[in-house]
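Quick illustration, no need to memorize.
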Amino acid sequence: MKSFDKLWLSSVIVTVIGLVDSLYLSAVKLMNTEVYCGGSANCETVNFMLYSEFAGIPIVFLGAAAYLVILALLLLERRGGFWKNYSALIIFGITLAGTLYSVYLTYIEISVLRAICPYCVISAIAQVVLLVLAILRLIRVEPEPSFARRGG
């Protein structure tokens, strides 16, 4: 397996982990139930904090949507053309924004709430790993030649 294929597969796996994590928290939010957190109240404190929404939209919904978009881009990339040439760059932008926002939320968890949600940590780690993978994929990507560049 080529290193680029390994990076792609690793990206898919990490994206699915982040998606499952976000979908679980989204379901909890939709059903207004408690997050399973092994007896700790930290998950509830974090999941229902003032900072758990952005412009009135629960962050977990935005996270799930971002992971779905990343997964779709990774799958579309295999079709070639535009998607092969630009998916890695688009994924880089999404994961950069996600990582920066995760850093901010982790700061809020530690310094303001003094509560750590393991699900949020999983998502933050997934974002950082996806950002690193996106950077590596950008460095190693070989764009397909466009129709105009082939001279035909």
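The first strand starts at residue 53 and ends at 54.
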